[in-house]
Write a structure and sequence with these properties.
Order of helices and strands: HHEEEHEEHEEE
Largest sheet: 8 strands, antiparallel, barrel
CATH topology: Porin
Number of helices: 4
C-alpha cells in the first residue's frame, strides 16, 4: 500500500499546483517546436524503489535533457541502477520446486536445499517523453511515458554457474508512467523530483527520486524564473 499512497500523494500535490498555471509561460512552452531539440544539460538523482519479487532498495540515476521535440514535449534519455536481494518467499518457492524435481526424478526424498541470499541487479537505459507545463512560483510540472532496456543480473554463492543464474540474467524491455516537479534555482541549476511506475515482464516497481540538474544550454521560453 505504501507505493500506492506515495503515487496518489504525488499526483494530488501536482494537481493542486497545476490547477493554477501561469498562462503566459504555459503558452510559450506549448509553442515550442523541434528547433529547441538538442543537448541542454544533465542531472543526477537518488531515491527509493518499491519492487515486486525483491526487497525495497535505493536507486540512483542520470538524466540527459535534450530539450523539446514539439509543443511542450521534452525528450529525456536516462540511465538508472539498483541492486537488491530476492524476497525470501521467492527463494523458498524456488527451493521447493527444485526439491520436488529431485524427488520426482530420483524417487527418493530430496535433502533440504538452502540457496542462501540471491541478489538481483538492474542497469536500465531508457528515453522518457515528457509533457511540460508551468505553474505558480516558477515550478515546472511534467508527466509522460518512457521506454527502457533493462540489463538484469542475478548473483549468489549457491547459484553461481547454474541454470538459475542464467535465468536471472537477461535483457528485457520495460515501459513507465511518470510524474514530476522541477524548480529552477538559477538559470544554470535546477532541482527536481519524479515518481515513476515501471513495468517489465518479470518485475514491476514504483520509485520516487529527487535530484539536481546542471544546465549547459539555454532555457526554453517559459522555463526560466
Amino acid at each position: 500500500m505504501a507505493p500506492v499512497r506515495g503515487m496518489l500523494g504525488v499526483a494530488v500535490c501536482a494537481s493542486l499546483i497545476g490547477a493554477f498555471p501561469n498562462a503566459t509561460a504555459a503558452q510559450e512552452l506549448a509553442d515550442l517546436d523541434y528547433e529547441h531539440l538538442g543537448f541542454r544539460g544533465f542531472g543526477f538523482d537518488w531515491g527509493h524503489l518499491w519492487p515486486t519479487r525483491v526487497e525495497r532498495t535505493g536507486s540512483v540515476g542520470l538524466r540527459i535533457d535534450m530539450g523539446y521535440a514539439g509543443p511542450g514535449l521534452r525528450i529525456v534519455p536516462n540511465v538508472s541502477y539498483w541492486s537488491s536481494a530476492l524476497v525470501q518467499g521467492e527463494i523458498t518457492e524456488l527451493e521447493d520446486r527444485i526439491e520436488q524435481l529431485i524427488t520426482d526424478q530420483s524417487g527418493t526424498a530430496s535433502p533440504p536445499l538452502d540457496l542462501g541470499t540471491i541478489e538481483w541487479r538492474d542497469v536500465a537505459v531508457g528515453v522518457d517523453a515528457q509533457v511540460v507545463w508551468d505553474s505558480l512560483l516558477d515550478v515546472l510540472t511534467y508527466g509522460g511515458i518512457g521506454v527502457t532496456a533493462h540489463v538484469l543480473d542475478g548473483d549468489g554463492d549457491a547459484i553461481a554457474g547454474t541454470f538459475i543464474d542464467d535465468l536471472l540474467d537477461s535483457v528485457t524491455a520495460g515501459f513507465n508512467l511518470h510524474f514530476g516537479l522541477e524548480y529552477p534555482l538559477t538559470d544554470r541549476l535546477r532541482i527536481y523530483g519524479v515518481s515513476k511506475y515501471e513495468v517489465m515482464s518479470d518485475l514491476q516497481f514504483f520509485t520516487v527520486r529527487a535530484g539536481w540538474q546542471i544546465m549547459t544550454g539555454p532555457n526554453a521560453p517559459g522555463e526560466g524564473r
